[in-house]
Amino acid sequence: MDIQRIIGGDIIMAFDECPPYPSDYAYAKTSMELTHRWLDRCFKQFTATPDKYGYTQNLFPIVQGSTYKDLRTASAEYIASKNATGNAIGGLSVGEPMEIMYEYTSLCCDILPADKPRYLMGVGTPWNLLECIALGVDMFDCVMPTRNGRNAMLFTSNGIINIDNKKWEKIFRLLMLISIVQ
């Protein structure tokens, strides 16, 4: 917490443990409980560490619980009870089918306060962003679009294209139009 405060983060993330997919119930429950204990310690340290920059820094707790409805519900309720300025949904988009990711994103958004930012961690495809916005998510982060961009991959309305492919060599139209001229 101190390091995040000192470097001047606007949004500071609480510590969490993100169980892999799939995880057995006992592991997912232990991981969620650890995340909640860490959250209590994070809030205590966050409030004990002065803001040195003169602007508001925000601590976001993170919902966990793997793909177990009762654990996700309990975690989202616990996170909501902390009355943070924003809340994160973690532990999704880690290998589970998209339908499950959407189901648990919706569950969390139904519980987390709608008047505070809801941040879904690790989601970045255009279709996932649009679907999750419709479910109530406000903020996202993901390395995938940057990684794809570095490797000449572009998202278009007709899917992903590789602009290193020889067929794009002499195309100088706007990239938005590439999907039309294929």
Structural class: alpha/beta
- Can you tell me the CATH topology of the largest domain? TIM Barrel
- Uncertain segments are 177-182
Instruction: Summarize model confidence as the mean pLDDT.
Output: 92
> Mind telling me the CATH superfamily name of the largest domain?
Queuine tRNA-ribosyltransferase-like
Structure description:
The chain is α/β, with parallel strands linked by helices and 182 residues long. The protein has two domains: 2-142, TIM Barrel, CATH 3.20.20.105; 145-182, no CATH class. 44% of the residues lie in helices and 14% in strands. The protein is built from seven helices and eight strands. The protein has helices at residues 2-6, 25-48, 69-81, 98-111, 126-135, 144-150, 175-181, and strands spanning 11-13, 58-60, 62-63, 87-89, 118-121, 139-141, 153-156, 159-162. It has a four-stranded parallel β-sheet with strand order 3-4-5-6. It has a two-stranded parallel ribbon with strand order 1-2. It has a two-stranded antiparallel ribbon with strand order 7-8. β3 (62-63), α3 (69-81) and β4 form a beta-alpha-beta unit.
